[in-house]
Design goal:
CATH topology of the largest domain: TIM Barrel
CATH class of the largest domain: Alpha Beta
Structural class: alpha/beta
CATH superfamily of the largest domain: Aldolase class I
Bound molecules: flavin mononucleotide
Strand content: 5-15%
Number of helices: 16
Number of domains: 2
Distance between the termini: 14 Å
Strand order of the largest sheet: 1-9-8-6-5-4-3-2
CATH architecture of the largest domain: Alpha-Beta Barrel
Order of helices and strands: HEHEHEHHEHEHEEHEHEHHEHEHHHHEE
Shape: globular
Radius of gyration: 21 Å
Largest sheet: 8 strands, parallel
């Protein structure tokens, strides 16, 4: 079983599911696991740690399945030769986020590598298309890590319309299950990119305790802002800021960012010590709004399988998006709740034979 979109042929994948280049926690292990499972794994070039990049790309040179390497564009501009390290590993694609991709596009294209650009608004999408982007990722504010203010349901159809079929558009931000993949395809996306869901995977190089906090987090327990960047002396250009789990440190400084700045030396020292000690009451667990959908630390292949199966069932009309969350038995405040009326969908009603869905892209 697979979901076919134009992305599959372009990237050489079986499933239109991409893993995000999450700084150094998306190492070769996660990238390879996602790609071997038929998705598209993207190594996290992040802020450009050369030794780490050389070591992880070396591991990927051995693998047959196509993969990508991602960079934070404004950071790559400080060490542009890191692109050569990445290209030497012969990735199928380089992904650039957060900054003008134009200075790097010619080298990427000359190497015969695809250029994926993650964008947060229409101006950035036009800039990426002008640079020759082959794939656009429309990232909504729900995303874990850095991003901007537009929501996924707003930005995805807007970028789909802007791209007008010239390049495939992938949706990112707040997606954690098959319902998200199905919904994004309904909005015109040809696939999804997920970070937070793959953070809580067995192959991710993140700390075990951070993964467990993601699994334990309920919906609505993340915040977007500048607190963790200020606390680690890592100033980002506008309009970007970062989303993470709300912890003691975030609670302490939310709404008091000016005061944090006034005490930044002391705060940064405490924060660095907490990061080194793995104290996630102070150090941020960088994660997005999909945390409420994530309950286990699963192998990457299983995550992809579950998401694709669920989306396939929804898109082919065999399953209603709500069927797995229907309470059973249906008991309300006043005792037994009446059965769903004729017009509403129930789990049993969705158990019908598969029928090809007209909107499925081939
Ligand atoms: C822990 C973490 C680190 C991230 N680091 C990067 C990064 O270094 N470069 C990048 O382009 N995006 C990074 N992102 C953002 C992802 O590219 C992607 O937009 C986001 O994860 C999608 O939203 P989701 O987390 O809800 O799946 C990161 C996301 C997370 C959760």
């Amino acid at each position: 079983m697979s979901i076919e979109t134009p992305l599959n042929g372009l990237l050489g994948i079986r499933h239109p599911v991409l893993s995000a280049p999450m700084d150094v926690i998306a190492g070769a292990r996660l990238t390879a696991a996602v790609s071997r499972a038929g998705g598209f794994g993207i190594l996290g070039g992040g802020y450009g740690e050369r030794t780490w990049l050389e070591q992880e790309t070396d591991k990927l040179k051995q693998q047959a399945a196509p993969f990508g390497i991602g960079f934070i564009t404004w950071s790559l501009a400080k060490q542009p030769d890191l692109l050569d390290v990445a290209l030497a590993a012969r990735p199928r694609a380089i992904m650039l986020s957060f900054g003008d991709p134009k200075p790097f596009a010619p080298r990427i294209k000359q190497a015969g590598t695809l250029l994926i650009c993650q964008v947060q608004d229409e101006a950035m999408a036009r800039q990426a298309l002008d640079a020759g982007a082959d794939i656009l990722i429309a990232q909504g504010s729900e995303a874990g890590g850095h991003g901007a203010s537009r929501t996924t349901i707003d930005i995805v159809p807007s970028i789909v319309d802007l791209a007008a079929g010239r390049v495939p558009v992938v949706a990112a931000g707040g997606i954690g299950d098959g319902r998200g993949l199905a919904a994004m395809m309904m909005l015109g996306a040809t696939g999804i990119l997920m970070g937070t869901r793959f953070y809580a995977s067995q192959e991710c190089d993140g700390a075990e305790q951070a993964k467990q906090r993601i699994c334990a987090a309920t919906a609505g327990t993340t915040t977007r802002g500048i607190i963790f960047d200020l606390s680690r002396n890592n100033v980002w250009p506008a309009p970007f800021n970062g989303r993470c789990l709300i912890n003691d440190h975030a609670r302490r400084w939310m709404g008091r960012e000016i005061e944090l700045l006034q005490n930044v030396t002391e705060v940064a020292a405490d924060y660095a010590a907490a990061r080194a000690a793995g104290n996630f009451d102070i150090a941020a667990v960088i994660a997005g709004q999909a945390v409420g959908l994530i309950h286990d630390i699963a192998p990457a292949a299983e995550i992809i399988d579950r998401i694709v199966s669920e989306a396939d069932q929804i898109l082919s009309g065999r399953r209603n998006s709500a069927s797995r969350v229907l309470p059973s038995p249906l008991v309300g405040e006043g005792g037994a709740r009446s059965a769903p009326d004729e017009g509403s969908l129930s789990a049993s009603k969705m158990s019908v034979e598969p029928t090809p869905h007209p909107s499925r892209m081939r």
